[in-house]
Amino acid sequence: MELVERDHPGTVRRHLSAEEAAAVRRFCADGQQVRPEDVRLVEAVLEEMHDGRHVRLWLECDCVRAPGGRPRLTARMREDGPRHFVRMHQYGEHHCALASFRQTPEPEDVETDDDRARPGQHNPLRPVGDALDYLDNLHEGAARPGGSTGSEGDVGERGRRLPRLGRILHTLLEDADFARLHVEALNEKFRSWERLEAFAAGQALSPQLSLSQILYFKPWTPLNRKMAEIDALVWPERKARSALLLFVADEIRAGVAIKKTSMGDCVVRPEKGIRAGGRDQRLTQPPYWVLSVVDRDRDGNARVREAFAQCAYSFAQPVPMESRYERVTLKMLFGVMEWVRKHGVEVTLWKPLFDREVRQTDKPSLWCRPDFELTFRSTAASGVALRLHRLVIETMGGDDPDYLERKSRTQEIMQRRGILIEHRVADDAGQKERDDVFFRRVAAKILHLAGVPQARPV
User: Fold this and answer.
1) What is the phi/psi pair of residue 62, to 5°?
2) What number of CA atoms fall less than 13 Å from residue 357's CA on the CB side?
3) Rounded percentage of the chain residues whose pLDDT exceeds 90
4) Distance (Å, whole) CA 91 – CA 73
5) pLDDT tens-digit profile of 146-166?
6) Does the N-terminal or the C-terminal CB of the chain have fewer CB atoms within 10 Å?
7) Which residues does 146 contact at the CB level (< 8 Å), separation at least 6?
8) Which of 46, 289, 50, 324 is nearest to 179 (CA)?
9) Burial class (CB in 10 A: 0-12, 13-18, 19+), 202
């Protein structure tokens, strides 16, 4: 194995030692047993490939001897880490143990039932690690209950199972940057599908197949035409032919997703129904992100097999959300971001769709998934280093004892990630006063941490 420069792939930076190459294969090959020293070696290679902001090097595997045909791995880093390997399918497939690829070894002796696991020590909800896994395995999708939801999905910190199709949707939205919003983007005019098209064009599922060929965003596209396009493509072995339809729906009712257009309502009717993410199980708080699987049934007829829906803040800013209560919090946070910007503080908002890691010294990492996070740096005028600050925001949208108990289990862990601020949301006459208090508290905390002098209270 060798590290090659990303911008000049013909330039070899260095060859991996035999120990490093063996560690990478044990770490990333499904079914391999990882040794204690492997983690340190793999982390060092990943750090060499990715400097924390940009990919500098690719890892080229020597399992294929043909010049120019060697499979490659790149490094990716989500938010504040950790770094991980990603297969680059456009350069061909591995002929070694990495042919069965995993991003990270699954931890042993981890309790997957969140009700029994200790807080923060559950099996964390992670993104789909390989774009090829967006496709069903052959003979799987049409036969198994729930279609592409797979076994039972993943649990994650909140104790609610996320179907596989929901996990794919969350991965797409996070990778296409819909779960992060900088203050400069609050007033930008853009169409969500344009950003998604640009993202999909750069993702490969095989040397001959890109994500943009299977992922489309126009629900009025005839199903027969789309499946005819799919049938004409060179397809990965052991994968069922299908397409993914992703769009923001105006409403969902009676098992159908509706997109309003100048030509009238466009109706998407999944054969196996629509599953909902978050707490809006009745699907009464539009708009919604909707991801649908398009394939052929056993008789060969094109169909929309199933769909997954996730509430979005608005059409202009389709940040995915868990509930209508989060929409109230998000509106307040947008206002805070614009207000503190006038004082020279640039804030970035994060909507965590997957569990966040909280590292501990000499102890296993803990995991949590806050409702929102705000990050910003100290101002240059404060006379201190431009330190990165993080606020953790939790929406408290109920008084149910079980709900409050689930929230309280992770608050201590969240406080290790940043300063925790709660926003209580309820359907009563006191909400405006609570909103005002929340706005002032968050804004004042940001200005204080950023080192901005405050002439008067916010």
Assistant:
1) -95, 15
2) 14
3) 52
4) 9
5) 444 433 445 444 445 689 999
6) C
7) 163, 272, 306
8) 289
9) exposed
